[in-house]
Amino acid sequence: MIPRALRQLAGDSASGAPVVVEGGSPGHVRVESTDLINMASNDYLGLARHPRVVAAAGDAIRRWGLGTASTRPLSGTTGLHRRLEQRLADWSGTDDAVLFGSCWTANAAVFEMLAELSNRVGATLAVFSDQLNHASIIDAIRAQRATLSHLSRYERGSEASLRDGLAGQPATAVKVIVTDGVFSMEGDQADLATLVKLADEHDALLVVDDSHGLGVVGTTGRGTAEAQGVLCSVDVVTGTLGKALGGASGGFVATTSDLSAWLRTGSRPFVFSNNPSVPVVAGALAALDILSDDSEPLATLRSRTDQLRRGVAGLGLPSVSGDHPIVPVIIGDDDAAREVSRSLRRLGVFATALTFPIVARGAARLRLQASAAHTVEDIDRVLDALDRACAQRGMLPARARNSAPADASSRFDDGSGS
């Protein structure tokens, strides 16, 4: 029997019934029989419904079925899994890659590996983690907390303190710097160029979770390291197949050949848990093919991102500058953010409110996410709905309210119409 106190606490913490999605189309989702522009998806390149991705997944189902029904060490590895691992390694600028069920388990596997290998060679393990890292990194470190000789959280921009912390560790310590490439709440990037330099200076290992960077930033979409000119200089890259690369599920670790070999034999998340299903792997391979030979999805994404960012700035709403398709609209109060989200849905836009404990108290927001699947008209409708929803709550500066033209599309149209 579940104790009454636990049930009471769980009930008090409930946030209501989940939103049930009934279907959708590129850039749109259907909820309660209503078509909404989907601004809450990580389908950055619009490839989740791309005909080549869907066809590749369908062909894989017909050949392999839904999955292998076991782990790879037991049932063997399909050629598709190895092809994808090799492609991801090349894309990330590393020797090899290993697939996992999710990037969450990939991050867990990385720190399990580092703790185990450090222990075997009799070295201490010192970890320096950005204070705004993703929850999967935080939990991966927590799981190995008993084995750490040092753990500190550093602030971006405080390179001097990070340098001092690294210098203060014994020469025999395994030192690890870990960061998101792109931070998911605000779309800003870690300073990888500086972190690579610090890692080199102090013989430290650099781990980067680039889930929101791969396929999105960099000249060819190869991620944050490419964007900052340090591709092939990051020791361990983790990422997901659940965002730009098809939008399904699955994660990976891209690193050296020897560490990859250890992960395949010594990592509990790999050995004791199923890998991504064959259709997902085939779809991700097709997504990488599209990204490699067709520049249009990335170019369209950047156009829509610029349109959205300029529009939010034109409304005078608090946001965070940058060029990533994550565009936060900072509301502050949790209840106000939820109400704006509900208003947007009534106006035809699906945008989820992010509140405590997902973000800090007083930092509630809407996280708008542009996609190549959005049309120019979609973004115009989003901006119009945002204008109306925020004006209803008196959130727009007077200047922005008075100057916002009725034909907002004329300010943002890039001429492409798609």
From TrEMBL:
UniProt catalytic activity: 6-carboxyhexanoyl-[ACP] + L-alanine + H(+) = (8S)-8-amino-7-oxononanoate + holo-[ACP] + CO2
Domain Aminotransferase class I/classII large: 34-386
Cofactor(s) this protein cannot do without: pyridoxal 5'-phosphate
Chain spans, region Disordered: 397-418
EC number from the UniProt entry: 2.3.1.47
InterPro entries registered for this protein in UniProt: Aminotrans_II_pyridoxalP_BS, Aminotransferase_I/II_large, AON_synthase_class-II, PyrdxlP-dep_Trfase, PyrdxlP-dep_Trfase_major, PyrdxlP-dep_Trfase_small
Keyword Cell inner membrane appears in the UniProt entry: no
GO molecular function: 8-amino-7-oxononanoate synthase activity; pyridoxal phosphate binding
Pfam families in alphabetical order: Aminotran_1_2
Broad EC category: transferase
Source taxon at top rank: Bacteria
Family, similarity comment: Belongs to the class-II pyridoxal-phosphate-dependent aminotransferase family.
Protein name, per record: 8-amino-7-oxononanoate synthase
Higher taxonomy: Bacteria, Bacillati, Actinomycetota, Actinomycetes, Pseudonocardiales
